[in-house]
Design a protein that fits this description.
- By secondary structure, the protein is α/β, with parallel strands linked by helices.
- Helices cover about 30% and strands about 35% of the residues.
- The longest helix is centred in the first third of the chain and has 27 residues.
- The protein is flat.
Length: about 150
C-alpha cells in the first residue's frame, strides 16, 4: 500500500472513532430528553435538596417520567422549591403522590422518586406535592453520631 492510502485509511478510522465517541456521549447524557417540554409542571418543597440539580430525572418505580426544571429558595417557607415537568403521557399520578430525593450510582447523581398515593384526584399543571422526603446527607448523619458519642 502506498503512504497516501495508509494516511486516508487512518484518517477514516479516526473520524469513525470520534463519531462513535460522540454518539456514545449523546446516549449517556440523554440530551434529547432535555428538549422534551410536553407535559405539566408540579412543584414540591424540601428542607434539604442535597446535590439535586436542574435536569435531574424524576422517576416512578424506576421509570423516568420527567425532569427537574427549576430549583429556588422560598424565603417565606424557608425551604427549597423544586419544580418538575412530568411528561404528558403520565397524567394519572394521584394528588397525594410522595416525592423523595434519592442518590443513584457510584457518582452520587441525585434524582426525585415519586411514589403514587391512593387519591382519585390527579396532579395537574401547577399542583403542589405535599408529601416530601429530603435528601439523605451523609455529613449530617456523621455529625449526629459524633455528637451522640461525645455525650455518652
Amino acid at each position: 500500500m502506498t503512504t497516501r492510502t495508509i494516511e486516508i485509511a487512518v484518517g477514516i478510522f479516526v473520524a469513525l472513532g470520534l463519531a462513535g465517541l460522540f454518539m456514545l456521549a449523546m446516549q449517556v447524557s440523554n440530551i434529547s430528553e432535555y428538549r422534551n417540554t410536553d407535559g405539566y409542571t408540579v412543584h414540591a418543597y424540601f428542607n434539604n435538596i442535597g446535590g439535586l440539580k436542574v435536569r435531574a430525572p424524576v422517576t416512578v418505580s424506576g421509570v423516568r417520567v420527567g425532569r427537574v426544571t427549576a430549583i429556588r429558595y422560598d424565603p417565606e417557607r424557608y425551604q427549597a422549591r423544586v419544580e418538575m415537568t412530568i411528561s404528558a403521557n403520565h397524567d394519572y399520578l394521584p394528588a397525594d403522590t410522595q416525592a423523595s430525593i434519592y442518590t443513584a450510582g457510584l457518582l452520587g447523581e441525585q434524582y426525585i422518586a415519586l411514589e403514587p398515593g391512593g387519591e382519585d384526584d390527579v396532579l395537574v399543571h401547577g399542583s403542589e406535592i405535599y408529601y416530601t422526603q429530603s435528601a439523605f446527607v451523609l455529613e449530617e448523619i456523621i455529625g449526629r453520631i459524633m455528637v451522640n458519642m461525645t455525650t455518652h
